[in-house]
From TrEMBL, chain A:
Source lineage: Bacteria, Bacillati, Actinomycetota, Actinomycetes, Micrococcales
Transmembrane segments: 21-49, 83-104, 116-136, 164-185, 218-239, 270-290
GO CC, one annotated term: plasma membrane
Top-level division of the source organism's lineage: Bacteria
Name the UniProt record assigns to this protein: Multiple sugar transport system permease protein
Annotated keywords: Cell membrane, Membrane, Sugar transport, Transmembrane, Transmembrane helix, Transport
Pfam family, one: BPD_transp_1
Signal peptide start and end residues: none
Domain ABC transmembrane type-1: 79-291
GO BP: transmembrane transport
Record's bilayer topology term: Multi-pass membrane protein
UniProt-listed SUPFAM superfamilies: MetI-like
Subcellular location: Cell membrane
Length: 303, 319
């Protein structure tokens, strides 16, 4: 493979290439500066200010951070809800999509179409997906309707009960995100070195044992990747609870991102919202770093 | 629908380098190889039985999985008062296709769709122009500080949207962009994702091709336009579709920066406000939801061959 080294060339030519490269990269660089670097810097500053949407801004030091942890009734519940969501959602989603990818093996007819089918909710507007589930989960909706008709059991009002509401947010999210990890795992499974699999089969490894001892370790890098990506997105969950339950009942399903949104754009406390966003960022970094640290124990890379 | 279109997704990392060959031929050959190697051995009787059960299981799972969307589709054609009938029915006393038409005159639904298409297409064009150019500079040209700047680009991928959106609103206030189309299009059109994707893709093109053009006296601009871009159609298509999906589905940012929904609201905003606006008109909500899913579903089916490459390169990114 070419590694990009050119034959040595004269300085003038290199200089002209540098100038042209600058031309090519400058729109992206300018945009990134304006729409990423400036906001990030501004966000740090805002975290230290009492910053209403309109009106006087006053420097308050670490007060926003102190206030969040000690004097903000919704902050801790929002953090807890986000963790509960991630703790339920990530394992369920990863395991189910892995099983699905395993099930859609090469001998299944129509697997290409099936994969597309499972991928559809990943790309349809989340708001539309949630609306559909909101209808299904109404007390008179399909889920309760079928349960009553078929089994004569009246189910609880899912979205109005604190515990059930969170379970429904998780369930809806698993359904929505299943196809994404499934595709990652499918790609990994198809890359399995045929020789190793064959050797294991000759040694008498079959079925579950084969999956657990051979397939899972061999695909552990992709499981690792999927877990990290799923965890990061889980910590940023917003639309599902916001639309499905409005964060309720009470604040039982309000995640941290909804808390940030509410602080900033409902209560006009942009400084507090910025501070909360940085706390979320710090948590995500810490969790990602922890996963990277733990990967040596279970992720097998081929060298 | 073709049944075996995603059978041979290439390795995520390697594939970006291997795409220089005409993609179709490459893929076909890869599949033949795979089949030769895997070479399904003749099955014994219990294996056949197991395979039949595997099919049954997978198709039942698929049916359950799809049920919410199917039920939503049929609900969109019910009279509103029969949405929550007990026992539930798939087809109500009458089939109201007209709901799909009525929804367009209900609230500013047509405006939402128009806005969504406009913002998504304009945003995608901006992303394509910016990312291909920057990707070319990072992937094909040599310049001082290139790698350092590239690391800086990549570092921005880590920052979650939540950190950006609040100060971004202030930036929009500075510009006087609150509640405008610009605010929906530009702020998230310069993310490093596209540049990264294009850089990876461009690096897979043999440098000899470019050298030959250079020897013939073509400068970087001509090489970029006449050699690199034409050879990168599939990569650009992947980026285009994923970018379009990102804009089409974007919710948090439009929610923040749009004030007058009836003027600048996009489809997700419209759908969300719909549930408040229409109160109990579930029939129209479902019709609207189904309509909003059509373009994305069509794109996924069109892109199915490239899905794996697209998502394994950098994820969909949530905004």
């Amino acid at each position: 493979m070419s590694n990009g080294t050119h034959t040595p060339r004269r300085g003038a030519l290199a200089k002209s290439e540098s100038r042209q490269a600058l031309g090519f990269v400058s729109p992206a660089l300018a945009g990134l500066a304006l729409f990423t670097f400036v906001p990030v810097a501004l966000s740090i500053v805002m975290g230290f200010f009492d910053w209403p949407t309109v009106g006087e801004k006053t420097f308050v030091g670490f007060d926003n951070y102190v206030k969040l942890f000690t004097d903000s009734p919704d902050f801790w519940p929002a953090l807890r809800n986000t963790f509960v969501f991630a703790l339920l959602y990530v394992p369920i989603s990863v395991v189910m999509s892995y099983l699905l990818a395993l099930s859609l093996h090469s001998r299944i007819r129509g697997r290409g179409a099936l994969r597309v089918l499972f991928f559809i909710p990943v790309v349809t507007p989340m708001v539309a997906n949630v609306l559909v589930w909101k209808m299904l989960l109404q007390p008179q909706g399909l889920v309760n309707g079928l349960s009553q008709t078929w089994f004569g059991i009246e189910l609880p009002n899912f979205l109005a009960d604190p515990q059930w509401a969170m379970m429904m947010v998780v369930m809806m999210s698993v359904w929505q995100g299943l196809g994404y990890n499934m595709l990652i795992f499918s790609a990994a499974l198809e890359q399995l070195p045929e020789s190793v699999v064959e050797a294991a089969r000759i040694d008498g490894a079959t079925g579950l044992r084969m999956t657990w001892k051979i397939t899972v370790p061999l695909t552990s890098p992709s499981i690792f990747f999927a877990s990290i990506m799923t965890m990061i997105s889980a910590m940023q969950v917003f639309v599902q609870p916001q639309m499905l339950t409005g964060g309720g009942p009470g604040n039982a399903t309000q995640p941290i991102v909804q808390f940030i949104y509410n602080q900033g754009f409902k209560f006009q406390e942009l400084g507090l919202a910025a501070a909360a966003a940085w706390i979320l960022f710090a948590i995500i970094i810490a969790m990602t770093a922890a996963q990277f640290g733990a990967q040596k124990k279970w992720v097998h890379y081929e060298h | 629908m073709s049944t075996s279109t995603i059978t041979a997704p290439a390795a995520p990392a390697d594939d970006t380098r291997a795409v220089t060959m005409p993609p179709a031929r490459k893929r076909r050959r890869g599949k033949e190889d795979q089949e030769k190697v895997a070479g399904h051995a003749p099955m014994t009787r219990p294996e056949k039985v197991r395979l039949v059960f595997a099919h049954i299981g997978v198709y039942i799972a698929a049916a359950i999985f799809l049920a919410p969307l199917v039920y939503a589709f049929f609900s969109a054609m019910k009279p509103n008062q029969e949405i929550f009938s007990m026992p539930p029915t798939l087809i109500a006393s009458e089939v109201r296709w007209t709901n799909f038409i009525d929804v367009f005159s209900y609230g500013p639904f047509l405006t939402y769709i128009g806005n969504s298409f406009f913002v998504a297409i304009a945003g995608t064009l901006v992303v394509l122009a910016v990312s291909t150019m920057a990707g070319y500079a990072f992937g094909r040209l040599r310049w001082k500080g290139r790698d350092a700047v590239f690391v800086l680009f990549l570092a921005t991928l880590m920052v979650p949207a939540e950190v950006i959106v609040i100060p971004m609103f202030i930036v929009m206030q500075w510009f006087g962009w609150v509640d405008t189309y610009q605010a929906l299009i530009f702020p998230f059109a310069f993310t490093a994702f596209g540049t990264f994707l294009m850089r990876q893709f461009f690096r897979g093109i043999p440098f000899e091709l470019e050298e030959a053009a250079r020897v013939d006296g073509a400068g970087p601009i001509r090489t970029f336009l006449q050699i690199i871009l034409p050879l990168s159609k599939s990569g650009v298509a992947v980026l285009a579709v994923f970018t379009f999906l990102g804009f089409w589905n974007s919710y948090l940012w439009p929610l923040i920066v749009t004030v007058d929904y009836a003027a600048h609201g996009t489809l997700p905003i419209g759908l969300a406000s719909f549930s408040g606006l229409t109160g109990t008109r579930w029939d129209l909500q479902m019709a609207a939801a189904i309509i909003s899913m059509i373009p994305t579903t069509v794109l996924v089916i069109a892109l199915q061959k490239h899905l794996v490459k697209g998502i394994s390169m950098a994820g969909l990114g949530g905004r």
